Amino acid sequence: MRPMSANAPQVKRVLSGIQPTHDSFHLGNYLGALRQWVALQESHDAFYCVVDLHALTVQPDPVALRKRTLASVAQLIALGIDPEKSTLFIQSHVPAHNQLGWVMECLTGFGEAGRMTQFKDKSQKSGADRTVVGLFTYPILQAADILLYQANLVPVGEDQRQHIELTRDLGQRFNSTYAATGATFTIPEAYILKAAAKINDLQDPTSKMSKSAASQNGVIEIMDAPEVNLKKIKSAMTDTGREVKFDEKEKPGVSNLLTIYSALTGKNIADSENDFDGKGYGDFKLGVAQVVVDYFAPVRAKALELLEDPDYLNSLLKIGADKANEVAEQTLKATYEAMGLIARG
Ligand code: TRP
Predict the structure, then answer these.
(1) Closest atom, ligand 1, to C-alpha of 138
(2) Which residue's CA lies nearest to atom 11 of ligand 1?
(3) Does the beta carbon of 51 lie inside 6 Å of ligand 1?
(4) Spatial separation of the C-alpha atoms in residues 215 and 220, rounded to whole Å
(5) Which residues have a catalytic role annotated?
């Protein structure tokens, strides 16, 4: 049973965030999560943010961060996030994220935070002395991002499941610890589509497509020029044999390309295989490349056009920040009250 909070919306609310850590989102980001963002804004009260504060954990170059934050916003709009339907904003424009983050830190166990697998992986790689505290508290800030908006659903990729579990635990813990004022937080659910296409690296088709890959040759970037993506797909790794057949074990390369083709055309795998019946891998790769290029060339063009007019983007972001602040401040106020902090007179 989910308690209804006072600040809960009528229509179900969705919140998600993405880090501005790169110049471009990649195909895996889009098919794994962003595509769901676009779909959900039709049926839900959607809040989407570019989580620039989370990006600070890797101490990005300030010029790059500024550029990437705006580029992220432009790409989200170009991919179909409509700022009239969704509240699109930048995390640092809403101070309540940090404020609720502190509250949630005071409710999180040290061991509990230490068990987050992303933290463990990243900190093991760099060693304790080079791991910043912000990386440790990262999932707690993420919990604050979500709880502030009384979100019901959080569309994310599979890798975020544990962070959403933590968010639920913290929300429930708060609600039961400070129950006298009623349920302060809506307990969210992860929205992770089983059928969401899992896209792998073109050169290493048994690993997830990711920006941290050793080589970028296997990563399709939305903002790359069509020729670049054409070339990457043409040189994608295929497998032995010559038949275009979906078989993740025996033919991971071909299967990955079929998954991409199927996801972007909306055809199922069997129909996708049929499209290349009797054709060799060369024709197959060209066919997939064409679909990818046709799909993303207009997105890239639209994003580049938006980036030509930063004033316009900033004006949209101001509207988004105002809407987000209104909701966030209400939740923060209720949180402080529930905990016994005295409201400023
Ligand atoms: N940690 C998420 C990721 O790397 C990004 C994120 C931050 C997020 N805050 C969020 C996602 C709130 C969903 C909701 O993908």
Answers:
(1) 1
(2) 17
(3) yes
(4) 12
(5) 122, 208, 211
Give the three-class secondary structure for 215. Answer: coil
At residue 58, the 3 state secondary structure works out as helix
Helix, strand or coil, per DSSP, at residue 82 = coil
- 238-254 in b/e form (b: 16+ CB < 10 A) is bbeeebbbbeeeebbbb
pLDDT, averaged in runs of 10, over the chain (345 residues): 55 97 95 94 98 97 98 98 98 98 98 96 89 96 98 94 98 97 97 82 93 89 96 92 92 95 96 96 96 97 98 98 98 98 92
Q: How far is the CA of 211 from the centre of ligand 1 (A)?
A: 16
| Structure tokens that stand for 192 in this block | 């992770």
Residue closest via CA to ligand 1's atom 8 equals: 17
Can you list the alpha helix ranges (DSSP code H) found in the chain? 27-29, 35-40, 52-55, 62-79, 96-105, 110-114, 117-126, 133-147, 161-177, 226-234, 252-265, 269-275, 281-307, 310-339
How far apart are alpha carbons 60 and 1 in whole angstroms?
A: 42
pLDDT at 345: 83
Provide the whole-model pTM: 0.94
Burial of 2 (0-12, 13-18, 19+ CB in 10 A): exposed
Verify whether ligand 1 is closer than 6 Å to residue 145 (CB atom).
yes
DSSP per residue, 227-242: HHHHHHHHT----SSS
Q: Which residues does 13 contact at the CB level (< 8 Å), separation at least 6?
A: 44, 45, 46, 47, 149, 150, 151, 152, 153, 186
Q: Is the CB of 150 under 6 A from ligand 1?
A: no
Cβ neighbour number for residue 88 with a 10 Å cutoff: 27
What pLDDT is stored for residue 9 in this prediction?
A: 62
- 19 touches ligand 1 (CB under 6 Å): yes
**Ligand 1 in contact with 57 (CB < 6 A)?**
no
How many A from CA of 254 to the centre of ligand 1?
A: 31
Dist. CA 337 → ligand 1 center (Å): 27
Q: Indicate which atom in ligand 1 lies nearest the CA of residue 54.
A: 7
Residues in the chain, overall count: 345
